[in-house]
Specification:
Blueprint: E1 5-13, H1 16-26, E2 32-34, E3 37-41, E4 48-53, H2 54-62, E5 76-81, H3 85-97, E6 102-108, E7 114-119, E8 124-130
Parallel strand pairs: 1-4, 5-8
Antiparallel strand pairs: 1-5, 2-3, 3-4, 6-7, 7-8
Amino acid sequence: MDIKLIAGYAVITKTPEESAKLYRDDLGLPLQEKEQYLSMDKFTGSKHFGIWPLDMAAKSCFGAKRWPENIPQPTSTIEYELDSPSAVAEAVSEMEEKGYTFIHGAREEPWGQTVARLLSPENILIGFSFSPWFHE
């Protein structure tokens, strides 16, 4: 695996309004809203930062509006950008060989990103991803 950069970081929150107040209003980060998801792209020091509601994370990971009760709820997510969709699949294989279990394997999201996700010991949702717009 050859990680190129941290592709994104987003807090996952049950209280998006409180998170928006802190990050957008109080810290002054230039977050833009799209369907409840607040984010900024190409901010110096990171390619992406966002506030991801837990129900949206559940839909992305499991196709359901609620996070499964038998899986610890993440409080944040970090994504590691790779070179290609096939590199994401290879990362899954590499990590599974090391004993890690993925929430879901490599797949293309509706917005065009290929991503696979697992939970860290700290319950951080870790994604291995390929986002075409970062490679243009």
